[in-house]
Amino acid sequence: MDRRSFIRLGAATLALGLPMPRRGRAADPGWRADRTLVLVELAGANDGLNAVVPFKDPAYYRLRPTIAIPRNQTEQLNGALGLHPSLTPLTTPWEARDMAIVLGVGYAPPTRSHARAREIWDTASDPGRALTEGWVGRTLGTRPRPDDLIADAIVLGGSDRAVTGKSMRSLYLRDPGRFTSRSSRITPADVAADNPALKHIAKIQHEVERAAQRLAVIQSRAPHLGARFPHSDFGRQMEAAARLIAAGAKVPLIKASLGGFDTHSNQRRRHPPLLDELAGGLVALRAALVNTGSWDRVLVMTVSEFGRSARENRNGGTGHGTAAAHIVLGGGVKGGVYGRQPSLTDLVDGEPRHTVDFRRLYATAAERWWTLPDARKALGGHRPMDFLKG
Amino acid sequence: MRRVFPFLAAALAPLAIVAAPAAAMSFEEARHLASRTGFAPSLADVLRLQEMTPERAVDWLLANAPATAVTTPPGWTKTTPRLRPPAGATSAQRRAFWIARREEGLSLRAWWYAEMARTPSPLTERMTLFWHNHFASSLHKVKSPRLMYRQNLLLRGNALGNFRDLVHAISKDPAMLLYLDSTANRAGAPDRTFARALLGRFTLGPGHFTERDVKEAARAFTGWGVDPDTGEFHFRVGRHDKSLKTVLWESGHLNGDEVINIVLEKDQVAIHITGKMWRAFVSETPEAFEIRRIAALFEDSNYDIKALLRALLTSKHFWDRRNRGRLVKSPAELIAGALRQFGAATPPGRMLRDTGEALGQDIFAPPGAEGWPGGTRWITANTLLLRQLLLRRMTLPIRPAGTPRVRVAMPRADLDRWMQAIPARRRRPETIAALLLPVRPVNPQAASADPARYVLGLLLDPAYQLK
Hints:
The complex is a heterodimer of chains A (about 400) and B (about 475). Chain A is of the alpha/beta class and about 400 residues long. Helix content of chain A is about 30%, strand content about 15%. Chain A has helices spanning about 5-15, 50, 60-65, 90-95, 115-125, 135-140, 195-220, 235-245, 265-290, 360-370, and strands spanning about 35-45, 50-55, 75, 80-85, 100-105, 155, 170, 255-260, 300-305, 310, 320, 325-330, 335-340, 355. In chain A, the strands form 3 sheets. In chain A, strands 1, 5, 6, 7, 8, 9, 12, 13 and 14 form a 9-stranded mixed beta sheet that branches. Chain A has a 3-stranded antiparallel beta sheet with strand order 2-4-3. A two-stranded antiparallel sheet of chain A has the order 10-11. In chain A, a hairpin with a 5-residue loop joins strand 3 and strand 4. Chain A is globular, with a radius of gyration of 21 Å. Chain B is mainly alpha-helical. Helix content of chain B is about 50%, strand content about 5%. Chain B has 23 helices and 4 strands. In chain B, helix 2 (about 25-35) crosses helix 3 (about 45-50) and helix 2 packs parallel to helix 4 (about 55-65). The interface of A and B includes residues 170, 191 and 200 of A.
């Protein structure tokens, strides 16, 4: 980059309290800080059972007489599982063998409170304990970071609890492109020196705008993505992620969020558009990253508070459940099905038992993707899974 | 000159009889008072106060603050469900029980926000929020929306009443006792958690009592408890420790009520409470001499909360011109203010819970016994963005038919209609800014901008986060 933009970037970096990117090769931190994990939060608790359908299991149809997906409507993946029709676009990565499905992800004992469940997922704590620091802060946050990271994490949507931590430096970019972006003509130093509250807010506003500008600059340097993103908040988040990665920005974690999954009623009408949006966004992200040669350094992973009840309720919906299937895609993924489909007859308190502890997903990301040695120690000792190559 | 008079009048308040009658207030002063004692004030709110002197206006606010809510509570508040599922319940029954409680919790939040948005006396709700934070207990632990609702009524009922009555009442509140795990305090195994809360954060504040006082006080409260099935407070005389106790240098065969009265005799109580109310209503930097003066007044009035608030709101520190826009709006104040100011419908309970949580304040669920720390800690890069996103989503222009549907579940207010409701002669950029912001905007906009966009720009200004 030319000297002027380097200086501008430097000024923005200093304003953000981040170290200047070094010209030349960054010091080797001993882990794969050049790889990105894109965490896609399905807020409200996605119904994994209707997303990845066990169409061969008669119990599935018995428990859900009206909302189960008929076998001939599913997009069959193998002899036992099929995708919800709205997830049909995901057959592309499935057939390219860079998408994995992890069955039965959850934890015990279950909690059916959204707030508590989100806390558990974000902090990777045992349901009985309450940790405050996000799981990313406890793993990545304890290692040296190379100087050329744009940030430790960029939050495009959803809560930021997973990335909290004393040493974590995160940038926030909400609703990109829809903000009336006006660069501050006033720096915090000019603002009401005698009003500490106003000064504090103005300073944060300034940092937020500088970060947004900086991210916009980086995104503008992205090569042509060659993919069409859905016209929705989630689509925009996926596009922003694609631009940042394609432009070569190094950021270990990008967090996105798609909400509305709390389908207590009328699930037949409400769930398909959400899955539509999810599939459209993920497939566009993949296409963009494949086209720009960045797919190999990206791992995408869905997370959600819990699954939904195995049995449908009287309002054509589902209540809060336990285990659910989750989707993982990326250039480094070994496509296939992992975990075990929970039994729908051997239920506990009316719900399936999980077969994969959710912390194994994080352990896989931390130890096998970022290659942080022994990261599992901060994740309750849960072992990584096998869905990554090499 | 006009600005000086009300200032002097406030400072000379005790000499009001002999001082010259003060002039009515400036717009900025009336707005300051309205904003500090309510949620985002409407133009009508400000103009009404502007007609009065500062003292008269404070008196008026205090005289027009009923102790009851105007919003009809949800139907379930009249039922009396058990606190916990019955012993022999099946897992399906247990699930149904907790699902019902969760739904009640959501509608409870919606009810309180509806009240904050619609009440003719926002000061009542501000004080209820203040006491909710002071006597912190959480729905997440208590797990009974009915008991939290009743506690809310208790807090509102005493919010601008008598602090002594309030302490007595809250110490027998079932939700509070459940929160403090003090439901079966008995002789031989006295519970210290409640006693510590009572001597500490509820009244004296930290550092003004010893562990021995806590131990002794705990014995005085033995026999106090909550029925685990009905959730009612009861006193079991058989469990009460009748022996001699010494709390804060006073001895006797003290019971709980007597210990409370002993505590309330200490000057430190008024100082502690005055300090907290100062930080909630006046500034982040209490002035020690003023605190002592006002605390003495508070104590001498036998803990009349209105007297305390009146003293704070007529103090020269409150009216000091430099004291505008120095306090950060809490998430509840921001949300209630926006609902109130722009007349948007109350969002569903689920959204209020999620938004509140994301901003750091889910009402009825403070993060811990010390309540919400507040102040500038409300504002981080993340919460500032979320606050602004909330305001944008609440004021999106109503789209004409045919435009692509945006899945925005947040009820929207119509900024254009809001603007039209303002009389034409006041519908000027400077007046709108003076109404919406406590100080000049940090990012001034061109006055010729489209009105709705201009208003949005003010809402997104850092100054909007202040009161």
